[in-house]
Amino acid sequence: MKVLVATEKPFAAAAVEGIRKEVEGAGHELALLEKYTEKQQLLDAVADADALIIRSDKVTAEVLEAAKQLKIVVRAGAGYDNIDCEAAKAKGVVAENTPGQNANAVAELVFGMLVYAVRNFYNGKAGTELLGKKLGILAFGNVGRNVARIAKGFGMDVYAYDAFCPADVIEAAGVHAASSQDALFETCDVVSLHIPATPETKQSIDKALVGKMKKGGILVNTARKEVINEPELLELMAEREDIKFVTDIMPDANDEFTKFAGRYFSTPKKMGAQTAEANINAGIAAAKQINAFFKDGCTKFQVNK
Ligand code: NAD
Fold first, then answer.
1. Would you say residue 279 has pLDDT above 90?
2. E-state strands within 16-71
3. Residue 69 Cα, ligand 1 centroid: separation in angstroms?
4. Which residues, 6+ apart, have CB-to-CB distance to 61 below 8 Å?
5. Domain-by-domain residue ranges, the chain?
6. What is the pLDDT of residue 78?
7. pLDDT digits over 153-162, tens only?
8. Fold match between 2-101+274-296 and 103-266?
9. Nearest Cα residue to atom 12 of ligand 1
10. 204 Cα nearest atom in ligand 1
11. pLDDT tens digits for 246-270?
């Protein structure tokens, strides 16, 4: 089988070597398309691929149409909104992600941005500490659980809400289970977003919700920009001069948010999963999943069932 790694933004060399070892070790052929600049290059490269490993690369209906032999596409990472899952399903192509592989990397970045925010973006003035503050985790998945673990090290009082994870599972992890999303925002000094971008969550972080936060509330986003209702958050930040917003996904309205000097920060490029460890882990996991799929039809991580 031919396994194509198509990455506009390439994996680290160590990750490519790890992928190669897995793929060739299982008797498959590895092809690489890195740093491509034109869609046509991707359309040409996928034509004879049986399997595809991608990062943030877009696998649209057009790409799937060009990939006549494709059986499986694996997004090395957690979010898979860059794959047209419905189109893949219609063509009988299995779409998978590699959950959990970059969760610690993202969780550590939450605290990088959070310390920066509570210390007033290092402007020389006294800030506050995290010890004893209430942290709200919206969605208790792979990233959320890592955030909880690290938050306890800081001595924070940790709360979480997840629409699909039962309260007793959250409590068993030593975290207070909030009764609702609203309650989480009302209770906590900081809320960190870890929800996927779905029809239910898109635009859901709006003025009414964030407006429930106490004075000095901090919103941290390492999820997706689409979950934020940007016009409403801008409105709230104009009305509430105490609210801070730090994000790893630059909003469309970055220029407008930048006007809130000392209360807003965005990484210039999404940095959450950008660690050597996460990069290597996710790439190798993708290769292993493809091997398992070809060996015995394993679709454990399929996201378009
Ligand atoms: P995950 O699938 O392990 O967890 C997602 C959690 O969200 C699940 O527990 C699920 O029950 C919960 N959930 C789904 N819909 C919900 C809703 N409407 N309300 C409340 N909870 C809901 O995913 P993860 O690995 O924890 O990643 C979370 C998100 O972080 C990803 O979807 C992705 O968008 C983002 N992410 C960003 C980066 C980055 O570089 N900044 C890297 C990895 C992931």
1. no
2. 29-34, 51-54
3. 31
4. 84, 87
5. 2-101+274-296, 103-266
6. 86
7. 999 999 999 9
8. yes
9. 139
10. 18
11. 999 999 999 999 999 999 999 999 9
> Which CATH code is given to the segment(s) 2-101+274-296?
3.40.50.720
Rounded to an integer, what distance in angstroms lies between the CA atom of residue 161 and that of residue 166? 9
Residues in the ligand 1 pocket, defined by CB under 6 Å:
77-79, 99, 102-103, 106, 139-144, 162-165, 194-198, 200-201, 222-224, 248, 270, 272-273
Q: Is the four-CA dihedral 84, 86, 88, 91 of positive or negative sign?
A: negative
Q: Over the stretch 194-247, which tens digit does the pLDDT of each residue have?
A: 999 999 999 999 999 999 999 999 999 999 999 999 999 999 999 999 999 999
* 195 Cα to the center of ligand 1, angstroms: 4
Q: For the chain, how many residues are written?
A: 305
Averaged over 82-105, what is the pLDDT? 96
Nearest CA to ligand 1 atom 18: 201
Query: Which CATH architecture fits 103-266?
Result: 3-Layer(aba) Sandwich (3.40)
| Residue 249 pLDDT | 98
What's the rounded Cα separation, in Å, for the pair 275 and 282?
A: 11
What residue's CA is closest to ligand 1, atom 43? 78
Taking the whole predicted model, whether its pTM rises above 0.90 is answered as: no
For residue 58, how many C-alpha atoms fall within 13 Å in the half-sphere facing its CB? 8
Q: How far is the CA of 194 from the centre of ligand 1 (A)?
A: 5
Ligand 1 atom 1 nearest Cα: 141
